Amino acid sequence: MKNQLVIVLDFGGQYKELIARRIRECNVLSIVLPGDTPVEKIKEMNPIGIIMTGGPESVNAEDAQTCSKELFELGIPILGICYGCQLTAHLLGGRVDTCDVSEYGKTKAKLSTESVLFENVKPEAKVLMSHTNLVTVLPEGFVRTDSTRSCKNAAIENKERKIYGLQFHPEVNDTENGTEIIRNFLYKVCGATGDYDMIGYIETQIAEIREQTKGKKVLLGLSGGVDSSVCAALLSEAIPGKLICIFVDHGFMRKNEADEVEAVFSKRNLQFVRVDASERFLEKVKGVSDPEKKRKIIGTEFVRVFEEQAAKFGDVSFLAQGTIYPDIIESGNDKAATIKSHHNVGGLPEDIKFEGLVEPLRGLFKDEVRKVGRELGLPDSIVERQPFPGPGLAVRVIGEITKEKLDLLREADAILREEIGKTKNKPSQYFAVLTNLRSVGVMGDERTYDYTVALRAVRTGDFMTATYAKIPHALLSKISRRITNEVKGINRVVYDITDKPPATIEWE
Questions:
Q1: How far apart are CA 231 and CA 302, in angstroms?
Q2: What is the DSSP string of 442-482?
Q3: Which residues pair with 443 in a beta bridge?
C-alpha cells in the first residue's frame, strides 16, 4: 500500500464500516478485516494502527470471537471500541463482567484531559453507550481515563504500549467530539500524516476491480441513480471497453426519468443498452402487496433481464452493482436483523448465473459516493440526483401496484420535486408516497373518493439516521394545492414527520 494504513478488525459490530469511514474522513486509508485475521498477514500489511470494533457477544462466552494475544506485542498502536475494549482487557489479564445496570443510548462521561485521546475535547461530554458487559479489573499497566455513572472504566489506556480502549462509540454522531477522539488516535498516537483522500480511494478501487475481473466483461444495471451512476463511472475508468451498462426501464421510474437517463449515458464512453421491460415487471408484481415480496420479485427479475442481455454479448463474467453500506446494514446478514431487503443485496436469487459480483461502493455512505462522483467528473444533475430505490415507485406505491397508481404517483412526485427543487436549503431526500388509503373529499359541488398522498422529506449526513425536514407550511400548502388540483385521483395530502429511527426513510 502506498498510503499509510489503519486496519479495522471486525468482531461483528454494526458500526465497522462507520469506523472505517471516520478514519477516511481524517484522510487516512482504512480497510476492514475479520477479527481473527492472522498476525502474520497484519504484519505484512504494515499498518500504522489497528482499531478493534464492537460486537454482539460476551468475551467470556466459549465461542466468543477473539484475536491472537500476539497482536498486542507487535508494537502497533491499538484502539479497542466497546467489545474491542473488553477483548483487550480480557486478553491482557484484566476482567470483564456483566453490568449491574446496562447502558444503552447517550450518557454523560467524565474524560481525563491528561489522555492524548481527549486532547482538545471538553472534559464532560455525552457519549453513546451500548453494552451489557464492562471492564471491572484493569490489566497490569493500564489506567482509567473516563467514567460514567454506571461504567467506572469507560476508557482505559496503557500509554507506554500505545494500547487504548473505549467502552463508548466515538464513531457515531451521538458521541460529542467523537471524530476528534479518533483523529487524536490517528495523528497523535499512530503518527498519521493524512496522505489519503477520495482520489486515493478511487485509485485503490480501480486496482481492486482490475484484479478481480482480470480483463473479463462486466455487466452493470444502470438505473441513473447516484449509486449506479457513480459505479458506472468508476468501472469505466477501471475497465474501459469491458463495461456494458444495461438500463432496465421497469416502468417504475419517476416522470421523464428514463429518457433523461438515456440522454446522459448514451453519450459516455461505455456501451449503453436500454431495455423496455415495463409490462414484464408489472405482470410479475400483479396482486402483490407485501413490500418484501415486491423487492425480492423485482430483484430476481432484474437479474433475469441482465442474464438475457448478457447472453447477447457473449462472454460476460461479472455482474456489477452500486450497493452502498446502508443497503447492507438494512438488508441484514446471519447476525443482524433484516430491516428491508434491497434488490441489490437481499433480493438476489441463489442461482445467479455470473462468476461473481463487483461492488466497489459497498463500503461507502451516500455523501462519500457523491464525492467519488464529483472526482470522476459526473455532472451535478447526476451526483445530486435524489436517492431512488432500485425497485423504484413499486415500493412507493403502498399495497398492490397498478399502472393507474404509478401514473398518479409520478405526477404527484414530480410536483413535489419541482417545488422543493426551487428552494435554497433543500432536504437530503424528498419524495411522495401513494398510500393505499382512499377517503371522501369534495371538489366543486362533487363528492370524490380518491387516494391520499404522503410527502416525505428528511435531513441526514449518512442515511443511517435521519430527521424529518421542517418544510415551511406555506410551501407544503402550495405543494398540496398543486397536487390536488393537477392530479385527478388524489384528494388528500399528508406530511410524514417521523425520524429514522424509528421509521426508515422509505415507507416500504
A1: 17
A2: EETTEEEEEEEEEEEEEE-SSSSSBEE----HHHHHHHHHH
A3: 446
Would residue 190 show up in a list of annotated catalytic residues for this protein? no
Degrees (nearest 5) of the Cα angle 396, 397, 401?
Answer: 135
Give the confidence band of 345 by pLDDT, cuts at 50, 70, 90.
Answer: very low
Q: How many CA atoms lie within 13 A of 230 on its CB side?
A: 30
| Residue 176 in this model has a pLDDT that exceeds 70 | yes
- Options 26, 67, 82, 245, the catalytic residue: 82
Point out the catalytic residue in the list 169, 250, 342, 343. 169
What's the mean per-residue pLDDT of the chain?
88
Instruction: Give pLDDT tens digits for 425-480.
Output: 899 999 999 999 999 998 877 888 999 999 999 998 777 788 999 999 999 999 99
Does residue 203 carry a catalytic annotation? no
97-126 pLDDT per residue, tens = 887 777 778 888 889 988 999 998 988 888
Which residue type sits at 30? Answer: S
Under 8 Å between Cβ of 224 and 249: no
3-class SS at 422?
Answer: coil
Catalytic residue selected from 17, 157, 171, 368:
171
Q: Which residues contact 350 (CB under 8 A, 6 or more apart)?
A: none
112, 154 Cβ separation under 8 angstroms: no
Report pLDDT digits (tens) over 201-225.
Answer: 898 899 999 999 999 999 888 888 8
Please say if 67 is a catalytic residue: no
